[in-house]
Design a protein that fits this description.
477 residues, Uridine Diphospho-n-acetylenolpyruvylglucosamine Reductase, domain 3, 4 domains, five-stranded antiparallel β-sheet, 17 helices, binds flavin-adenine dinucleotide, binds D-malate, binds zinc ion
Length: 477
């Protein structure tokens, strides 16, 4: 273990008290491994400050000692963004205890939430006031507001409400030297200099630690309709998306694509998962919702699906009749990541392309991967309405998981070549983290990467904020 970080532990314990610091290896281990179990780091301590003053003092002391800090929320990162280095040189700072709802205002339609509150708890608090926090991801019961903002999470309703970034009006953060940046304004209009909140959103803990934020709310939905369909092809799914958007663009809040392979894994691994339509190669999950009462969404959905069936795009469909059925349909989509984790080794490509090119992307990327790894199981699914596909791959049946993972860079390069040809992005919503900094030079090189480096240098000159993440040469291991 590194002496500088280890030597700092007693001083950090002094700041947060014995309940605010874990240093037993068994206690710190879950904080040192990523959700996908790709990386296992080590840390001499997980510090869990109880308030902003403690957080700022912890950062000040780490910074003064030149010790790297890894901010951590729910530790659900798909790119190992919250995992410390293996050499024990970094302190993990968990935001879990800084988790209060500071304010909620149904007139301003805003809530001020501390970073450690889970996304689900924030959604529930908004619902209790007749509002909705319009951000939803499968990990919402564990992911925290700070992590969601630091990764600029997208998710199931981005097609209607945008990414996390689109919901942030104000921010409070502890910067790399321990100074508190207090900008918790709830203004809809505020053009006063550089937009620091948006710089912190999506910075993956490399510029500062988000401690609280003001989030935009929308009115609670009064009507909701959820349908699961089998579609003839990805092209047919895209055509269905177009139909729904033309019918009632404001009501289309989710449009998700799933391939037969992923659905098969969910049915195999997730207890209680039941497929209410005939098994198929392609599925679309649709949610329409509106705050308007008696808006007639059911008729819109039924008419659109009937027309799509007549056109041969939709083959089978079921519309949920209750909240429980809506949840059961969503479970089939939301459990894809967990089902894949239970199946074994996987390579993930969280990519985006222009929405119109999703079908072409799916065909070309599948062909490229099957040529590279004969027998590979292609498990694409995701937020088709945003052009964001999780082009995930599972090891060939009976193959060795480690040998498969050893090919992950080659697989990602093959998928990346297709994404590049279609003018897409190598990371649509999961971020760069520790997994993908090596891609930054070729995808974001030149002035873009140089400017990012200048920002990092200006805000974190000692490189203590989440070293080894996002930027290719940010230090750490
Ligand atoms: P962590 O994993 O703890 O951290 C993520 C990054 O943010 C790290 O770089 C960390 O250092 C930094 N960070 C954490 N807290 C702070 C803070 N307070 N201040 C500064 N930096 C901080 N992502 C999507 O975008 N859309 C999805 O649909 C989606 N679905 C998912 C489904 C599952 C089952 C899982 C496991 C993950 C999914 N993710 C998705 C990925 C993940 O990015 C999100 O779950 C979430 O945004 C991460 O929140 P977290 O609190 O777990 O952050
Ligand atoms: C999701 O939308 O479920 C995820 O972001 C998951 C994944 O890539 O596995
Ligand atoms: Zn996703």
């Amino acid at each position: 273990m590194s002496t500088a970080a280890t030597a700092l532990v007693p001083a950090l314990r002094e700041v947060v008290g014995p309940l605010g610091l874990l240093d037993d290896a068994a206690d710190t281990a879950p904080y040192a491994e990523d959700w996908r179990r790709l990386y296992r780091g080590r840390t001499p301590a997980v510090v869990r400050p109880a308030n902003i003053a403690e957080l700022a003092e912890v950062v000040r002391r780490c910074a003064a000692a030149g010790v790297g800090m890894v901010p951590q929320g729910g530790n659900t990162s798909m790119v190992a963004g919250a995992t410390p280095a293996a050499d024990g040189s970094q302190i993990v700072i968990s935001l879990a205890r800084i988790n209060r709802l500071r304010d909620i205002d149904p007139i301003d339609m805003t809530m001020t939430v501390e970073a450690g509150m889970t996304l689900k708890a924030a959604q529930d608090a908004a619902a209790a006031c007749g509002c909705m926090l319009p951000l939803s991801i499968a990990a919402e019961g564990t992911a925290q507001i700070g992590g969601v903002l630091a990764t600029n999470a997208g998710g199931n309703t981005t097609v209607r409400f945008g990414n996390a970034r689109d919901l942030v009006l104000g921010i409070e953060a502890v910067m790399a030297d321990g100074a508190v940046l207090s900008a918790l304004r709830r203004l809809r209009k505020d053009n006063t200099g550089y937009c620091l909140r948006q710089l912190l959103v999506g910075s993956e803990g490399t510029l500062g630690i988000i401690s609280a934020a003001v989030l935009k709310l929308v009115p609670a939905m009064a009507e909701r309709e959820v349908a699961l369909c089998t579609v003839a092809s990805p092209e047919a799914a895209l055509a269905l998306f177009g139909r729904l958007r033309r019918e009632d663009p404001a009501a289309l809040i989710a449009f998700e694509y799933m391939a037969g392979e992923g659905m098969g894994l969910v049915l195999r691994h997730i207890p209680g998962a039941v497929l209410p339509v005939a098994a198929a190669a392609h599925y679309a999950l649709i949610e329409l919702a509106t705050p308007r009462r008696a808006a007639g969404l059911r008729a819109v959905l039924e008419d659109t699906l009937s027309a799509a069936m007549e056109a041969g795009a939709v083959r089978d469909a079921v519309i949920a009749e209750s909240g429980a059925q809506r949840a059961a349909l969503w479970k089939l989509r939301e459990e894809h990541a967990e089902a894949q984790r239970r199946e074994g080794a996987s390579v993930k490509n969280d990519v985006s392309v222009p929405v119109s090119r999703v079908p072409e992307f799916l065909a070309r990327a599948r062909a490229a991967c099957e040529a590279l790894v004969p027998g590979v199981r292609v498990v694409p699914f995701g937020h088709m309405g945003d052009g964001n596909i999780h082009f995930n791959l599972a090891q060939p049946d009976g193959a060795d998981g480690a040998a498969f993972l050893a090919q992950s860079h080659a697989i990602m390069a093959a998928v990346g070549a297709v994404v590049r040809a279609l003018d897409g992005s190598f990371s649509a919503e999961h971020g760069v983290g520790r997994l993908k900094p090596y891609m930054m030079e070729s995808w974001r090189g030149g002035t873009e990467l140089a400017t990012m480096r200048q920002i990092k240098q200006a805000l974190d000159p000692r490189g203590v904020m989440n070293p080894g993440k996002v930027l290719p040469d940010a230090g750490g291991a």
